[in-house]
Structures are given as C-alpha cells and as structure tokens.
Amino acid sequence: MLTRRHLLATLPALAAQAPRYDILIKNGEVRDPQSNFKAKADVAILNGKIAAVEPSIPAEQARETIDAKGLYVTPGIVDLHTHIFYGAGSVPGIEADPVAARSGVTTWVEAGSFAYDNAAGFQKYIVDRARVRVYGFVYLYPANRDPTGDPIKWARAAMRPTAEVIAKNPETLLGVKVQIGVNMNGQYSPEFLKIARELCDENKLKLMVHISDAPPEVPAILEQMRKGDIITHSYTGHGTSLTDAKGKLKPGVAEARARGVIFDLGHGLGSFNFNEARKCLDAGFPVDTISSDIYQRNIEGPVYDMPTTMSKMLHLGMTFDDILLRTTINPAKVIARAEGIGTLRPGSPADVALLAIEQGEFRLVDSQRNAITAKQRIVCRQTLFSKK
User: Fold this and answer.
1) What is the tally of structural domains in the chain?
2) ω into residue 216 within 30 of 0, thus cis?
3) Which structural domain range is residue 123 located in?
4) Do 106 and 132 touch, CB atoms closer than 8 A?
5) Is the residue at 270 inside a domain?
6) Beta bridge mates, 134
7) Which residues 6+ apart lie within 8 Å of 188 measured at CB?
8) How far apart are CA 181 and CA 186, in angstroms?
9) Same domain assignment for residues 255 and 189
10) Most CB atoms within 10 A, among 21, 24, 37, 129?
11) SS3 state of residue 374
12) pLDDT (tens digit, 9 = 90+) per residue, 71-91?
C-alpha cells in the first residue's frame, strides 16, 4: 500500500520522465538556409513550434519520434506562384492540402486567379479552409470579364476597388498580379502595365508581373519594376525571355535585380524552358525564387509538384542548398507576413519537409515538352505543418 509520503516521494521522479516535446525528428541531415545550418541533428517540436535543434536529443523526451535517417530535414517549402482558387476562369485551381502532404509545400501563394470582387470568396473558401498557409495576389484584369468593350477603361475602373480590398486584408493579400504579353492582353499589355504600376505606386503595393510573348519587350517591362516587385516566368522560352539569341542578358535585366526586383521561376504549363534556363544560369543569373505555377492543367505534367520543379534545377546544375534557399527563406522574405516561415530556428512555426535525393534515371519535361534524363531527383517523404 502506497502512503501519502510514498506518493509525494515519487512525484518528482514521474515529472522528470514526462515528455518535453510533442514530436522529435531524429537522425536527419538538417538544412536551414536562413542560418546556413548544415549538419546531422535532431529537431524537436512543441505546441506547433520548433523547440530545439541539437546534435542529439533522447527519444524518450518526446511523445512521438520520427526517424529521418537518410533524409534531409528542411523548412517547409514556400511556393510563391500557385493557382488554388476554385472559381471559373482560364486557370482552374487545385486543392492545396492534398498536394502539400505529398510535396512538402506548407506555404502557398495564389498568384492572381481572382479579382477584387472574389477576394471575399478567396478568404472564406480557400484561406480559411486550408490546413496549410495561404496568401494571394489580386488579379487586376481578369480575362473574359470586360462587358464594356473598352479594356483600358475596364482596367482603370478596377484600380480603386482592388486597392481597397487589399487594404482591408493586409494579412492575406500581398499585392497585384498582371499578365503582360501580346498573347495575354494583345495591344493593351503596355497600358495594363502602366495602370498596374500607377495602382501599386499610389497604394504602396507589391506588383507581380507575368511575362510571356513580346511585345512589349523585356527591357520596357523591367523599366516599370520597382524594389520588391516580382517578375514571374523568368525562364520562359517566349519572346520576353531574359537572354538574347547569343545567351547574353538583355538590357535592364541585371540592373533590375540590382535595384531589388525579384526574379521568380513560375514553371507552369508553358513558361519553363530548359534551354532558356541554361542560358540564364550560364550568364550568372539564377532565379531568386523557384515556384511551380501549379494548377489543374499541369498537375499531371509537366509540373506535377514542387519537388519535380526543384529536380529540374538540380539537373541544370544548381546545388541542393541553393535550391533550398530559393524555395524556403527567399520566398518567405517576399511574402513578409508570418514570422518564422522558411526557417527551422527555435520559435518558428513547425513547418518541416523531409526530403530525399534519389539516384537513378528520371525523365523530366519542360513546358515545351523537351525531355531530359536526370540522374537524381528530389522527393518528399513527409510533411509537417503548423498554422500557429
């Protein structure tokens, strides 16, 4: 029979055995580009936060242990260009959560599938319902929505309500997205870019510009870009490519980066070309961020997911660490909303991807259906996420 005295005596011992952490990821190769941390280490999670990153943490200190032997433990992947809005339109979106679970993407940016009049729906039906973290750019000029017959007047009429809806939702809406290229908006593209520039300048908003077929030419587009703005589809094989026929950077490209313009990959159905990517890399111009531009029409190929997009850059010669930099902390800095995303430092949200680099022969295809055989590919084995 235990007496009160015996019970009191055993309590400290029992307390000492209580788990300190909820989850412990052991034996993995931890990679955190934000702090340049590269070492075999254990990662502990408590209450949805990274609690510790140490060389060795005893398994008994956690309620659940994940063995990450042979895997890279990285911050959750941040995809700066996706389409996950369910509304009708030319870019039908996907559901983020199922893809996140298999791909390691814990932060998603919806890159302009909706306009100001659908922002409330984006919040209610996408952001609020997703288990992953979601942000968005508001599209200034949605296709097939102009009832006036005057596209310029229609785009200008959208300026004020677009600015107002972003101002009311600063925690979710990042800025304005506009598509520029003769194949996107015909002869009106230069005017749309001017309108978008005016809108963003007046309201101190970030601008994301989709580049495609010229005209306008890329130097003229870049003249309109400011610090913190984003050029997406940087490795397009279309007329607004960043390099000329000789593989040299076009005028204004290096200067735009120097003044703080962000160059994003944005793979998509038609906007990533192996040859153009090689030319840019050979010219010393890697993208700042790697994104998928994933949606219904490319999720079954050629995009599939972020690890596949990352594998293409690995094949082109970018190191794994450089790829992680461009898929974690770099896009997290562009978003600049949730504190701690894109890193594994203690106190950050417990967004974690367990990645592997497989060896073999893997067929990878660009947007023009050019195929290569890669010797390595990046795959995701497990995704952990916390919205705290």
Assistant:
1) 2
2) yes
3) 76-335
4) yes
5) yes
6) 108
7) 151, 152, 155
8) 7
9) yes
10) 24
11) strand
12) 999 999 999 999 999 765 557
Q: What is the CATH number of the domain that holds 67?
A: 2.30.40.10
Query: Does residue 260 sit within a domain?
Result: yes
Cβ atoms of residues 352 and 29 within 8 Å: no
Q: What share of the chain is helix, strand, coil (3-state, %, to 5)?
A: 30, 30, 40
> CA 46, CA 21: separation in Å to the nearest integer?
5
- My answer on whether 124 and 225 are in the same domain is yes
CATH of the domain at 161: 3.20.20.140
Q: Are residues 111 and 171 in the same domain?
A: yes
74-to-305, 344, 355 alpha-carbon distances in Å: 17, 7, 7
Instruction: State which amino acid sits at residue 177.
Output: K
Inter-axis angle of helices 320-327 and 306-315, nearest 10: 140
| Residues 80, 65 share a domain | no
Of 307, 293, 304, 301, nearest to 235 (Cα)?
293
Each residue's pLDDT tens digit, 119-178: 999 999 999 999 999 999 999 865 556 667 788 888 899 999 999 999 999 999 999 999
Q: What are phi and psi of 198, to 5 degrees?
A: -60, -45
Assigned domain for 346 exists: no
What letter represents residue 284's amino acid?
G
pTM of the entire predicted model:
0.93
For residue 125 the two structure tokens come to 């039906």
- Helices 306-315 and 274-282: crossing angle in degrees, nearest 10, is 50
Is 341 part of any domain?
no
Report the alpha-carbon distance of residue 273 to residue 267 in Å, rounded.
8
